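Q: Joint fold for the lines below.
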Amino acid sequence: MRIGVFVCHCGSNIEGTVDTATVAKASLDFPEVVYATDTMYACSEPGQDGIIQAIKDKNLTGVVVASCTPRMHEPTFRRAVERAGLNRFMFEMANIREHVSWIGRDREANTNKSVDLVRIAVEKLRRDAPLIPSKFSVNKRVMVIGGGVAGIQAALDCADGGLEVVLVERESSIGGKMAKLDKTFPTVDCSSCILGPKMVDVAQHPNITLHAYSEVDSIGGYVGNFQVQVKKRATYVDWELCTGCGACMEKCPSKKNPDAFNEKIGPCTSINIPFPQAIPKKAVIDPTTCRQFVKGKCGVCAKVCPTGAIKYDMTDEIVTEDVGAIVAATGYDLFDISKVTEYGGGRYPDVITGLQYERLLSASGPTGGHIKRPSDGKEPKNIVFIQCVGSRDKSLDRPYCSGFCCMYTAKQTILTKDHIPDSQSYVFYMDIRSPGKMYDEFTRRAMEEYGARYIRGRVAMVYPKGDKMIVRGADTLAGTQVEIEADLVVLAAGAEAAKGAPQLAEKLRISYDKYGFFMESHPKLKPVETNTAGVYLAGSCQGPKDIPQSVGQGSAAAAKVLALFSKDMLESDPQISRVDIKRCVGCGKCIMTCPFKAIKEVEFRGQKKAEVIETVCQGCGICTSTCPQGAIQLSHFTDNQILAEVNALCQS
Amino acid sequence: MPVLTGKELRIVGFLCNWCSYGGADTAGVGRFNQPTDLRIIRVPCSGRIDPLFIAKTLINGADGVLVSGCHPRDCHYAEGNFYARRRLEVLKRFLPILGIDPARFDYTWVSASEGQRWQKVVTVFTEQIHALGPATRHENVSPELLAKVASAIQGGNRVAA
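A: Joint structure:
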């Protein structure tokens, strides 16, 4: 092998604390290294051209680049060596930026360490073999999980692009959180007026199949060929027959159940259609409150239903959908305000969340759009909004900013003034975060035109006095204590990961952060991709987002899916395990340990042997360290390669 | 150019690509200063780490070995770090039988976002190894002995391999 070593300055990022020329010179002493040089920016066009030129001039057969982390530029350099005619796997990187130059100032030690890292890269490269990817076909259907605004956008864009789309929604209607909102900031558009048509488009689009009241049960397969089991939960209403007329809701005798759609501030019937614009507009029976289920007798809905759609004996049903890509758009949930005991959320009826307030403002809400206190139905005059409840609070393990609360609180103060002209809104805030087009202007309007009083400081406690709530807090700008007699207290509850998000992430085999939000592939450059090929993210499941961001991500995820499906065949990553059939004794330990069911048992001349299914193998190498014979080896991370690295470090 | 005599000891790290290697990158991006002793070998998953690698590294003259993977339940490959945890725990108890101070080996979990945690892990482990001092060099260990060690750790017949 003829190896070339390229040591990158990365401007001064590496050169500042590593003597790259010395590293290059020292590399020439390593076996099979025939060429070594330092280069200003290896990843730049002249840098890559220099590598390509050197491969041609010096007849190199393998390349080591000592620069940044391979997680950053390994694909870049692989493409470069491929352009020069080498197999793209005849390439290794030494990470001398993140792991050396950026973490220490000692130039001598850093240079020395860089030489060591180049040494192990060379030893690994010497044992690399060219790898050729194989091709496999793609099933050009896409599944979108979650029918909020992000999922709706992703589904519509994919469907308009000509793909078949399967949309899975946990609730009985799509629409998500946006369907619950009264108005949207900063235009004060009616939320359901702008979302409604999109929901109708989903229902009427010939390319979209909607599974509402359904959940993803299990996911198998790999990019291009996923098999997803979808559990269609029992609705106890035959949706083929249900026309959404609502006769059952009128007659249902169990009327006082907390309405989930109205954030539990209004009642609903046991058989229910959540809101008038629901898509699909079909009824669902809640068996935990329905008298037929609880007491065993009632049957009123079955009697009044004009189409005979009620089926009390319905059971959950599993359907299998074969798709080639999956978009996760499962959204967020609200922080449980009862965890902040000093604010009394959950204890006092007149301490509510911003989303509950949204339902009070909405014309389709439980009060018909009139702001009434939950406790006595009176119109509140003094309303206190408290920001950052469950956001930016380390003590609650919610150190992140939920992003959209500052804006919706400003919107709510404006709407409050519109609804009740003689009302006064107070907002306790930490900082006003309103980056976005027309956003800061909007918050200023709330203060200047609508007279909302913004008080910078935290609230210490909220307690009842008579029929009022006393809000006691600090005004840090005035340096005083403040006490406000409020009729209603609205808490801007922070966003947290949707319930069940970690479990879904595990089914999707994607990572999630410690709060349960799904991890994108790269925080800056790959915001909708995940580390699992063929799985994309849209909306707040990745982190709190407002509506335009969610819509933008929905479209972005759709673009990624369309790009993926623009090819008829996909290339598999050839860095997978391979079985040496002479060494394999057919013990089957690898089959048992493989997390992806990527190894199967085959018969070879009457003997049992293991065989890797190329497209399923993800290249983790668990089988390699399990095999008692060393017969199954992960390409590019073979036992010999890792031991060669160990030897290079120990015997130098 | 070996380790800097008198300044550095020979510490080898085995890090999974997805979490801990990323965590070490994050520490770099955040410019979290660390001792320079550690040399990192990248593997796809902590489940790829054969206990034999660690035993061999220590027998071959490393003064310390640090393994780090994704937090349990957060493995990129779903369950690789569970295999790693079991193997590494067994190895830790087995090291004294090989005549190796188990304090020279440690394993931990660091996610790709935990740059500061990585800085702390490296600093504490390096200090721990420096407190122990250089390891006794096992010169001229015969391949047969290594094979026996391998066999004992694997609990199987890998010697044939």
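Q: Anything notable?
A: Chain A touches chain B through 60 residues (CB under 8 Å). Chain A has a mean pLDDT of 95.
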